Amino acid sequence: MGAGQPGGRGGFGYLALTSWPSGCGLLEFVDIDSTNEEARRRALAGEAGPLWITAERQTKGRGRRGRVWQAPPGNLSATLLIRPDRPAQECAQLSFAAALAVSDMLAHYASRHDIRLKWPNDVLVEGRKIAGILLESETQPDGLMRFLAIGIGVNLAAFPPETEFPATALGALGLTPPAPKAALTRLAGAFLKWYEVWRGEGFAPLRAAWLARAYGIGRPIRVRLAAEDIHGVFRDLDETGALLLELPNGAVRTIAAGEVFF
């Protein structure tokens, strides 16, 4: 199925969480190198999206900082290709929209479990990682996005062993995992909701919703940066989505990118 045309200025048509969003394309693969890489190829060939790309297996799936993303059979691996008419710095905020959408989708299947969001782009259930998000993009000379690929992996049936941060899956929680296509349909509808909020009202509503579901606010954390690890207390997010870390000396440091450990 090819990509549908967005309604309005890059919008989607919304039906229901159990129906595929109108105006949004879907490509399904059995095997692929990477759904994010396929999104890049199609974007450079002229595809603007909105287009979801999903695969049963990825041979070169990747997470943050070039790590391999392992997706056992029955899990969800998908990428949304879009071209928001916004500066690249603002588009980075869509990682929060994706996290909120994943948590909304998981709430349908795991309503009795504690679902939380971990800065900057992970989703936790009962304190263990169940989903990760990876944004990749290319910017035009005018500062607007040439394309944005939002890669999302969700542990539905199983989770990979020996992960740095403790992991889980719906199946490991004693729940019956949904088919990946059913989970993706709910995810696509939920993302649409938050995307339209962001387009119409900016980042503030996403920030408020994310903070209401955040894991670790007020707790000591360790943040891994490119050249150092720093310790402090997770106090807040600023108006751009950066983490505000209170250092032992009382100063507050603004962190735009890093990895958080508890």
TrEMBL record:
It comes from Rhizomicrobium palustre. Keywords: ATP-binding, Biotin, Ligase, Nucleotide-binding. This is biotin--[biotin carboxyl-carrier protein] ligase. It is an enzyme of class 6 (ligase). It catalyses: biotin + L-lysyl-[protein] + ATP = N(6)-biotinyl-L-lysyl-[protein] + AMP + diphosphate + H(+). GO terms for cellular component: cytoplasm. GO terms for molecular function: ATP binding; biotin--[biotin carboxyl-carrier protein] ligase activity. Coiled coil: none annotated.
